[in-house]
Amino acid sequence: MPTPEPEHGLLVSMLLVLTVVTGVVDAVSYLELGHVFVANMTGNVVFLGFALAGAANLSATASLAALAAFVLGALAGGHLARRLPGHRGHLLTAAVAVQSVLVAAATVLAAVAGHTSDPARYTLIGLLGFAMGGQNAVVRALKVPDLTTTVLTMTITALAADRAGPRRLASAVWMFAGALFGALLVLRVDVPVALALAFALLLAVAALTHHAARRTPTPAWTRPL
């Protein structure tokens, strides 16, 4: 765990937990929802090209659905960031609370209706893609360096090129951990259990951020940059 800086404080730890959530939900979506990502859009753009070229086991429709849901979620997250510009703690709490509701709905749907039928599968892609798009937009507004919670290509490049940055290394490690645990739960237990893990992590982030942001005097990390 990198040492928190006063201007970012608790946000560093909370964004690393959200990075784990990213790994978990992408494990669910890739392994069980038709080889599609709901958080890492670079993969979906590449998969869309592969699918249109006729590659087997890839769906252009699923990739487009994930992209559309993600964009809508990012629009919503950007709107929320503009509504709460003065307090990063309140912004993260509100965003993760909404994300928790969406992931909870996906968990219930997967438990009740399964994930193999097209209606259930595309609904799950929509819920999770929207949730992750919102997460990305809000994380961008928080402006914590080297913690995007999703994209690791530039993070790993910077880590290798600059030979520095514990936050960059932590980001990659926590994403790996989320993908590993998510895949283990999907493959050896069930999809709803993996989604329940993501939901529990989101609840923890919302609760801890809300509690910490209410302290007096107002913590330095809550102030916008």
Report on this structure:
It contains eight helices and no strands. The chain is mainly α and 225 residues long. It has a single domain, classed as Up-down Bundle (Growth Hormone, Chain: A), CATH 1.20.1250. Helix 3 packs parallel to helix 5 (118-142) and helix 4 packs antiparallel against helix 5 (118-142). The longest helix has 26 residues, at 88-113.
Index terms:
74% helix, mainly alpha, Growth Hormone, Chain: A, single chain, 225 residues, 0% strand
Task: Please outline the helices and strands.
Layout: H1 10-32, H2 41-52, H3 60-83, H4 88-113, H5 118-142, H6 153-162, H7 166-188, H8 191-213
Which fold name corresponds to the CATH topology?
Answer: Growth Hormone, Chain: A
The low-confidence parts are none
Rounded average pLDDT? 92
CATH class: Mainly Alpha
The overall number of domains is: 1
Shape: globular
| CA gyration radius, whole angstroms | 17 Å
* Secondary-structure element order, N to C: HHHHHHHH
Share in β-strands:
under 5%
Number of beta strands: 0
Distance between the termini: 23 Å
The number of helical segments is 8
**Alpha-beta content class:** mainly alpha
Specify the CATH architecture.
Answer: Up-down Bundle
Name the helicity range. Answer: over 70%
Q: What about the largest sheet?
A: none
